[in-house]
Design goal:
Helices cover 15% and strands 34% of the residues. It is an alpha/beta fold. The strands form four sheets. It has a seven-stranded mixed sheet, with helices on both faces. Strands 5-6-2-1-7 form a five-stranded antiparallel sheet. β3 and β4 form a beta hairpin. The longest helix has 12 residues, at 108-119. The radius of gyration is 17 Å and the shape is globular. The protein starts with a strand and ends in a 6-residue tail after the last strand. 42% of the residues are buried. The site of flavin-adenine dinucleotide has 20 residues, from β4, β6 and α1.
Length: 238
């Protein structure tokens, strides 16, 4: 059980929630948690945005009933959350100058990853992509970590006009990305190095039992919830 410490709107339909509870099962950035929501049979998976001993931060977009219920919850209320789910990112492969690319609600898992890479002494560049200015969040937070940050919006109302793939630098050693599937596919085609992709597929059980999130890879079928959500560039079949 986790207790809500903060639940604040930070962009259009996007909320940041911090909670206190046992985070000891969270072992890697890029993992996700699965939240029980009152009146909903299936839990709702949300990426870990940040975690410390006893503290968890998630960022979620209101897209349906479950996330709408979450957005109305108040400080002091409790949530039943399964933690430490999924494989997470492997920072051992990053090289010295990793590139992080997040689109929309694919931005949150990039935050804990960026923090970890910077703590390991890496020089990190981050590209954050949104549709328009009222959707932009976490630019300053990434800058405060010490990353070089580029923001793109499709309509040009904030940052650089265009898609994340329009501002890709030449000099990066490896990449990590999370976002909507068309963006991931475009990143796959434009990147010249190896990298890791995080998928936010629809899920059933969320812990490997139902096969509801199974997808084909070059190394056989994988469950996004258990064997993912992070897949290597080399194994993906679009
Ligand atoms: C591993 C993982 C990590 C995720 N991390 C985040 C995160 O950090 N922040 C965040 O905002 N969301 C994240 N999601 C997506 C989030 O789980 C869904 O948006 C949420 O479950 C929707 O619940 P709901 O009851 O509000 O909407 P529902 O009523 O269940 O659905 C409303 C609408 O959203 C669509 N939808 C629901 N789930 C998804 C999905 N996974 N992908 C695309 N469309 C979906 C439905 O098709 C429907 O059109 C993640 C998903 C996964 C699998
Ligand atoms: S959601 Fe059940 S196996 Fe992945």
């Amino acid at each position: 059980m986790f207790v809500i410490c903060e639940n604040t709107k930070i962009a259009k339909d996007v909320y940041k929630m911090t909670l206190s509870g046992d985070t000891s099962k969270i072992t890697a950035t890029g993992q996700f948690v699965n939240i029980k929501i009152e009146g909903k049979y299936l839990r709702r998976p949300i990426s870990v945005c940040d975690f410390e001993d006893g503290s968890l931060t998630i960022i979620y977009k209101v897209v349906g009933e479950g996330t709408e219920i979450l957005s109305r919850m108040k400080k002091g209320e409790e949530l039943d959350i399964l933690t430490g789910l999924g494989n997470g990112y492997d920072t051992g492969k990053s090289g010295e100058n990793p590139l992080l690319i997040g689109g929309g609600v694919g931005v949150p898992p990039m935050y804990a990853l960026c923090k970890k890479l910077i703590s390991e002494g890496k020089k990190v560049k981050v590209i954050l992509g949104f549709n328009k200015s009222d959707e932009v969040f976490y630019k300053e937070e990434f800058e405060t970590l010490g990353a070089e940050v580029f923001v793109t919006t499709v309509d040009g109302s904030f940052g650089i006009k265009g898609f994340v793939t329009d501002v890709m630098p030449e000099d990066y050693t490896y990449f990590y990305t999370c976002g909507p599937e068309p963006m991931l596919k475009s990143v796959y085609e434009k990147t010249k190095t190896s990298g890791q992709f995080s998928f936010e597929e629809r899920m059933g059980c969320g812990f490997g039992a139902c096969m509801g999130c199974s997808c084909k890879t070059k190394y056989g079928d994988k469950r996004i919830c258990k064997d993912g959500p992070v897949l290597l560039k080399e194994e993906i079949i679009w």
